[in-house]
Structure prediction request, 452 residues.
Amino acid sequence: MHRTFVRCRRLFTGLEDAARADQTLVVEDGLFTHVGPTAAAPTPVEGDRMLDAGDNLVLPGLVDAHTHIVFGNARGEEDIDFWGTPEFRALRGLFFAQRVLAAGYTSIVVPGDAGNCSISVRDAINAGLFTGPRIAASSNVIANRHSLNDWFPEHVGTPDYVTGRLCTTPTAQIEEVRRQAKAGVDVIKIAMDGAHFREDGTHIAAFTQEEIGAMVAEAHRLGKKVVTHAYGKEAVLYAARAGVDVINHAFFADDECIDAMLKSGSHVSPTLTFLRNNVEFGQGHEPTAGSGYQAMQRRVIEVAKRTLTRMRQAGVPFMTGSDSGFAVTPYGEWHAREIEILVDWLGFTPAQALRAATSVSARAMPRGGTLGAIDPGRRADFIFVAGDPLADVGVLQRPGSVTAVHIGGVPVAVEARRYDPYKVTHLSSLKWTDVYTRDRAIELGLWQTGAP
Ligand SMILES: [Zn+2]
Prediction:
C-alpha cells in the first residue's frame, strides 16, 4: 500500500489553538499514520506519493453540523415538502452534497430530511458509487402539534413525503424512533418547539419533559444520536435534561439551561447563518420583509448574541452549522459564515471557532472521534486553504480560497457544473409575489385609467 506524504509549511490540527510550522503528514489506507515535524518524518520509499501544500494552510476537513441536503435551496416549506418526488430530491441532494464538499466540508450532519433521502445519498457515497462528503443521515423530524415541521393545516397533516412526522402520543414517538433506527439513520431529529407562544412571547415546548426523556433514552439505547430544534428556554431545558447530544439554536436559554447542558454534556449548534443571511440579504420585495419575519429575526439575533456568549463563557461546547438548503443559504456558499459569526458575535478566537468547525462538530458524526482532526489514527480528511483563516476566518468564504480537498487521503475533484434552478429548485406553481389590485397597479405606475 502506497503512502501519501503531505508537506505542510503551516498546519492547524483541529485540536490545538496554534498552527504548527514545517510538519509532514503521512497517510496510509485512508488514515493519518504520522503527524510531526518534517525533520523527524519517516523516509519516503519508491511509490510513495509526495504532496506539497506550498503556502496554503492545511486544516482538517470542515464539518457542517446543520445542512439539509434534500431541501434543494427551497424558497418556502412547500418547496421542501410538496414539489419534487422523494427520488428526485435524493438525486438532487447528492448533487448538492458534492457542492458542499467542494467548499471544504468533508462531513455533513443532516438534522432532518424527508423519508430515506439522506440515508440513500449517504449509502451511495459510502458504497463508492459517487464522490461525496461523509454524511450523518437522518429521516423525518419528529414533530408534535405546535412544533416546527408541523407547518401545514390540520387537514394536510404530515403525509409520508414531507419532512416532519407528527407523533402526538408517547407510543407513536417511541415507534418513530425505532422505525428510523431500523431505516438506518445516524441521528434522530426532534422539533422541541416552534410556533406556539405564551402571552408574554416566550416559547412553549411541544413535548413534555417525560416525552423527550423517553425518546432520547430509546434513541441512545438503539445507538443513535439526538439533535433538536429548540429556541425557547423550556425546550432547551427539557432537551438538556433528557441528554440530547446537539441542541440547535438555544437562543432564549437561561442560566438554568446552561447548567443542565453542562451536566448532560449537550453541545450547542447556534446556526445563526440562516438568521444573518435573512436579515442581511433578504430584500424589500421578499415576503419575509413584509410579514415582519426579518424584523423578528433581527430581535432574535440580539438576544442570541447575549445568550450564546454566556454559554461560551460557561464552557458549553459549540458546533458550527449553516442550515444550508434554503434559498437564503444555498449549498456550497455560506457554510463558513457560521465560523465567522462565532468570532464576530460570540467572542471566539479564530482558532477556537475553527476547532468548533472541525474536531468539535465531528462529534455529531458517527464514529466522530475518528474525524475532525489531523492526528494519527484519524481519517485523513484535510483541506488546503489559501490565506490565513487563523488571522481572519472570513477568508474561508472567499471564492477559490479552498484550493484542495482530500477525503480519506484521496483528492476530490468536483466539477463546477451549472444548472437551471427552474428545473432543479424552483418547482413550485408560484406565479406572483404581489397582488395586482387597481390601487396597486396605480401605485406601481402600471395603470392610469380610473385614477382619482
Ligand atoms: Zn434546520
